[in-house]
Amino acid sequence: MAVSGFEGFEKRLELHFSGDDPATGKGLRRLDFFSLEKVLHAVQCTVVSAVGNKYFDSYVLSESSLFVYPTKIIIKTCGTTQLLKSVRPFVDYGLTLGLTLCGCSFNDEVVYLEANLPNNLSCKKASTMNSKSCYKWHVFTACDEGCMVGGVGMHAGDLYTVEICMTELDGVLAKKFFRRFNDGKTGDSAGREMTEITGISEINKNALICDYAFDPCGYSMNGIDKNRYFTIHVTPEDGFSYASFECVGSVYDDKDEILEILKKVVKVFRPEALSVSTTDDGLD
Ligand SMILES: C[S@@+](CC[C@H](N)C(=O)[O-])C[C@H]1O[C@@H](n2cnc3c(N)ncnc32)[C@H](O)[C@@H]1O
């Protein structure tokens, strides 16, 4: 945790691999827990809770979340962590399984990324998306020639990611993410209670939820529903309150469905300011 207590906006790294793991089809999910912990130690965070299903494994981290699919890793950690230190070990691990990296993301640490990404990723792009607020999204993408067809990613799929960053949370709602003194609960049981009383459990009733409450305050959860996840991380302290939400949508979903989800999320936090981004696999 940052010395100031302010954890800040997250950095998000998404690594896509191509190829199959003929032995089990589990691919990157074969990464053993000890090796995973070693990578996370370098990043400066730890696993606080975990859950998986037949599609992927999901980890709630002390500093956000990690999702491991057979050929995809998504890791999200806060501003003070060393997220990029996970790039090389994850790439190397993929190589030991015969998987090749074909895409990735981030910003000013472009130099570090360029030095640590495989040479075949020649189509690189770093962008800063300005907005009217004081916040900007920084995005770095990279893929190999095979992914680019007329500027559109060949891997463009049906799925896309929606992220919301919320600041200046409603004070009364933010209080719900503080533990009661001596509540006699574990991080898991207090997390479960927060999921219920805040309305987070209503966001997707079909999801299997893995939640965790920090002491004295703060909350993280991953929800998994078939091959899709959603994740929420809350820093409720007055003066620098912040919450993030991320979920996976499909172009085939009813458009109202995603809007309903977003409305439910905003109702949980009622932030003064929010910023939304969508990303698809087209790497555009
Ligand atoms: C939910 S954690 C995750 C941090 C990350 N920036 C995020 O938002 O995804 C942040 C909140 O948990 C609290 N917290 C308490 N103990 C913590 C710990 N050991 N590690 C990280 N956060 C902790 C912080 O004060 C803050 O309110």
Quick tags:
284 residues, S-AdoMet_deCO2ase_core, S-AdoMet_deCO2ase_CS, six-stranded antiparallel beta sheet, 21% helix, autocatalytic cleavage, alpha+beta, polyamine biosynthesis, binds S-adenosylmethionine, 6 helices
Associated small molecules:
S-adenosylmethionine
Q: How far from one another are the termini?
A: 33 Å
**Overall number of strands:** 16
Structural class, please? alpha+beta
The percentage helix is 10-25%
Kindly state the mean pLDDT as a whole number?
A: 84
Rg over alpha carbons: 18 Å
Family: Belongs to the eukaryotic AdoMetDC family.
Pathway: Amine and polyamine biosynthesis; S-adenosylmethioninamine biosynthesis; S-adenosylmethioninamine from S-adenosyl-L-methionine: step 1/1
Pfam families: SAM_decarbox
Protein name: Adenosylmethionine decarboxylase
Protein model, in words:
- With 284 residues, this protein is of the alpha+beta class.
- Helix content is 21%, strand content 36%.
- It is built from six helices and 16 strands.
- The protein has a six-stranded antiparallel beta sheet.
- The radius of gyration is 18 Å and the shape is globular.
- It starts with 9 loop residues before the first strand and ends with a strand.
- Residues 149-156 have low confidence and may be disordered.
- The site of S-adenosylmethionine has 20 residues, from strand 13 and strand 14.
